Amino acid sequence: MIEVQKATATPPQQNGRWAGYRQLLLARIRELKREPEVVFWVFGFPLLMAAGLGVAFRSKPASAAPVAVVAGDRAAATAAALAGASSGSLLKPQVVSAEQASNGFRLGKFDLVVQPDGAGGYVYRDDPARPETLLARAEADAALQAAAGRKDAAPTTSVTSSEPGSRYIDFLIPGLLGMNLMNSGMWGIGFALVDMRQRKLLKRFVGTPMRRSDFLLAMLSSRLVLMIIEIGLLLTLGALFFHMRVMGSLAEIVLLGGLGALSFGGLGLLTASRAQKIESASGLMNLVMMPMWIFSGVFFSYERFPAIIQPLIRALPLTALNDALRASILEGTPLAQQWPRLLVLALWGGVSFALAVRWFRWV
Fold first, then answer.
1. What's the rounded mean pLDDT across residues 348-360?
2. Phi-psi domain of 88 (left: phi exceeds 0; alpha: psi -120 through 50; beta: other)
3. d(CA 264, CA 282)
4. 87-108 average pLDDT score
5. pLDDT for res 1
6. Superfamily grouping for domain 65-147
7. Residue 165: its pLDDT value, please?
8. How far apart are CA 224 and CA 339, in angstroms?
9. Domains in the chain: boundaries
10. Angle between helices 278-295 and 168-198 (to 10 degrees)
């Protein structure tokens, strides 16, 4: 008898719950190679901005304020007193005619006009709306009063602070890092989604077994790869060219950057979840980001704004991220002591992602 062996059927391969998510994430990362502008706006632009502003606000000696001394009997002595050692060489006097002094002050050539009067005193021409004018007047008055014999009641010493950690560039780089994470998270995800919707690419996914949450999560996670490179480039630039000291743990800084990237990525998904055109998505994203550009302390401290709106400013995700990055980079504050800021970022990111999954449309 011939024995007939029954072929056993090969069981279907089980890819697992996250197989679709992994493939979508890899596909999104490969797509970045086709977007050469990403290299500039995500990596090149923040480096150029940090380098330019760092050079503009580098530590350098204070420039001497130009002061016009109106020509007359005591003009030469007045100019000598203003240029003397008692003024700290912060004034640059020039003897000119009354007409030249008036025109030069009006056109911004001089910060202050000094005219000796007939009674042994001086007449100052200044503009309260110009801070440099008020500083020049204070220096000029101190120099002239000292030349006239005034004695200071208490000796004073001036110490210039220019060490790493207390300069403008040290304040600026964490703010630029936070701003760039916001821009790349929102623009990178928002524009990609709307572009795919316009080209009818999202419509093709409707007939697949892919989960909506996997697709959006893959879009969100792709920003983490860029985030690590962004943090590395900016911190390296600050350390090598501006001698910035990174006081906190690099692992904690990367975790902060990752949480910030996910938070703004969630906002990007939400703003682009139903937009049909690039123009509408651009308007929505600008509407979301504009208040944070102004209020969240990227280029200057938000403490300058009125106290009544300070709680609202601190509730913004970019404010929380910038404060957390500065505390970690400049002060070495551990993450456990920054839980209110982490909570703000987590709430913005989590709520935005949940709403994006609920409201997202393929077409």
1. 85
2. left
3. 15
4. 80
5. 45
6. Periplasmic binding protein-like II (3.40.190.10)
7. 56
8. 21
9. 65-147, 164-359
10. 160
